[in-house]
Amino acid sequence: MSHEPQIVGFLCNWCSYAGADLAGTSRIPYPPNIRVIRVMCSARIEPEFVVEALARGADGVLVCGCHPGDCHYSEGNYKAMRRFPLLKQVLEAYGVENERVRLEWVSASEGQRFAEIVAEMTERLRALGPSRVKAALQADMLER
Amino acid sequence: MAEPKIGVFICSCGTNISHVVDTEAVREQALVLPGVETARTYRYMCSNPGQEMIGAAVREHGLDRVVVAACSPRMHERTFRGACRAAGLNPYLFEMANIREQCSWVHADRPAATLKATALTRAAVFRVARNEPLDGLTAEMCPTTLVLGGGIAGLTAALELAEGGYPVVLVERSDRLGGNLARVDLTAPYLDSARDLLTERITRVRRHHNITVMLHSQLKALSGFVGNFTATVQTADGEAPRTIAFRLGNVVVATGYREFDASRITHYGWGKLPNVVTSFEFERMLRSGRIETKDGRPPRYAAIIHCVGSRSREFHGYCSRVCCMTALKYAQEIKSAVPDCYVSDLYIDMHAFGKGCEDFYKRGSEAKTLFLMYGKNEHPVIRRAPPGDDCEMLIEVDEQLSGERIEIPADLVVLMVGMEAREDSAEVAHLVNISQDKDGWFIESHPKLDPVATTTEGIYIAGTCAAPKDIPDTVAQARAAAGRILARIARGRIEIDGVFAEVHEERCSGCRICNELCPYSAIEFDSEKRRSHVIAAACKACGACAAACPSGAVKARHFTSEQVLAQVEGLLS
Questions:
Q1: Which fold has domain B501-556?
Q2: Which of B83, B136, B282, B568 has its CA 20 to 30 A from that of B221?
Q3: Do A72 and B107 touch (CB under 8 A)?
């Protein structure tokens, strides 16, 4: 059996979580590999949340916020956008492949888009195989 | 901390959840989680018996925390928080697991969906164990309402609020009141005059001591929060253009629609063929009392084409709702003004859903109109008739009922242009902080249960800015929005959610990073103490400050790191 990746999603309440709900109300199917945590804004997402998810065995982390210019809090998504490249640099140093952590914009009307992103990410992570960083990250976190 | 006592309640939602998720398995898995005292399944947890079941379990087991695994928290979080409050629990000692919208409705594989529902429930249990009881705040409610738009929706809302005894500022972008309805002659299906409907309202609005009308005016900025907004309006009403600011408690957005630009469908020839007119141009003819071609003759052949810009793959997928009945009205009016005229009506489906509309359709069908059905995503083609024909244009249509390609003559063609979101709708949405759907219409808080509220407290929507609708529906929404606002004003003060940020003074280094980050300027710096502190009423709980604080001094209440990390742990263990 092929590897079934586990994805943790951090979705902002106003756009992306509503978009994921819309995929549900519109009955647009996507793989069950994603499990979502709701935050009020993508700007709330601390790098630690992402690292913790990977350390606890997630094969991928998907962060979703409102499209640029559409943030419920006017510019929270820009803050997430600026924070993200830094986080990815750090994760790269731990050997976390680029595809494992993604930042995407999903609006409240984009149920279809959310489903497509999850399907595509699941497919890529399946191809990538299980995350090898879990052990490394865990060891490092224990040291601290 | 004493060991929490958690109750887990798993909803089947009829069979909406249980047809994919094995709720019994979710229950068994929940029961063995740390702190869980009881776990139960029920068919409709949101129903009265369901909510009472939660209350009874709280009393029976002495529960101090509750998890409901059911639909989206966007649907019923408020309901279950209410049930917790009724059972004597602080409503924030509650958590929802979304196993419907984000599980049973999108996954078909029963074992995988059950596994996911179990994980989501476990995450909620882990989180709720770390939830803290929170208290909200109360703030003043300014009784003034800002109404954006002076069409039938805005006028109606303004009157309703003013009659309720509270001040209204009505801001209209153009130089007159009445909106799109002022361009209409008679309304379907009862043929009342639009002018009669409007004039009475406009006069009352103009004379009402509680209403300030500002024409030639635009909202430029809106700051603050429900009950305590400040609006900046730029106005050219009166002498010199100026900008004014005033306080208000609530906003009704009633900015309406614009008509579809018929020139976008090139093969209808609007703008090139002189006797192809839009429904609004035809209304102008009706109001002037003369139905005639450009050269002043009564038409011998008139054709009405439905769904111009609506219900098509290429333009708008939605139905504009008012055009079918308006088209029937035109057919009757042409027949009565020019009895010899042959009238054809080219439609896709006839939508006659409103009160009195089916009867109106029946009367229309008897008025010797030739009904021709054309296919969705196909368009009739209009071209000039060759010289010598007794008509000016020919319309070719693949008629669906006969299955034949039919050619009909026309001297006058009326295009039933649909409604679309206004060009300034994105700007308005941004100003008042509400969302738009894929077609640009403003999104309501809930399409069925909360159709005039939005996700921003204190901002209401009414009429066609939310989606195409007819006059009765528009008026009903305007009155509903006004009613909601009146009820809130009547309560005097407003309650503010307990979710906001807090600065732990001892940990704060006074670096002021959070001050700059806050989009609402809700974080002040106390220069004596050299510490930042949050103005709770102004905070909207985005949590940007909490994520950015280098010393971990800012706590995003109800979204603390401990709570989120507990959820992560629950999802992955």
A1: Alpha-Beta Plaits (3.30.70)
A2: B136
A3: no
Q: How is chain A split into domains, by residue range?
A: 7-143
Cβ B561–A46 below 8 Å, yes or no?
A: yes
pLDDT band at B1 (very low <50, low <70, confident <90, very high): low
Helix (H, G, I), strand (E, B) or coil at B569: helix
Domain ranges of chain B: 6-136, 145-256+422-492, 261-418, 501-556
CATH of domain A7-143: 3.40.50
Closest residue to A108, CB basis, from B435, B559, B568: B435
CB distance from B435 to chain A under 8 Å?
yes
Whole-model pTM: value is 0.81
Q: Quick count: other Cβ atoms within 10 Å of Cβ A17?
A: 28
Whole-angstrom distance, CA of residue B493 vs CA of residue B274: 60
What residues 503-562 of chain B have any CB closer than 8 A to a CB of chain A?
Answer: 517, 519-520, 540-544, 546-548, 556, 559, 561
pLDDT at A87: 94
* Total count of residues recorded for chain B: 573
On the 0-12 / 13-18 / 19+ scale of CB atoms within 10 A, B292 is middle
**Going by CATH, does the domain composed of B261-418 fall within 3.50.50.60?**
yes
Q: Residue A79 is which amino acid?
A: K
Say whether B564 and A37 touch across the interface (CB within 8 A): yes
Q: How many Å apart are CA B319 and CA B423, to the nearest integer?
A: 19
Under 8 Å between Cβ of B534 and B549: no
Closest listed residue to residue A121, CA positions, set A61, A46, A81, A67: A61
ipTM of this model? 0.95
Do residue B547 and residue A38 have CB atoms under 8 angstroms apart? Answer: no
In which region does residue B552 sit, left (phi positive, over 0), alpha (psi from -120 to 50) or beta (all else)? left
- When pLDDT is cut at 50, 70 and 90, the band that residue A141 belongs to is low
Residues in chain A: 144
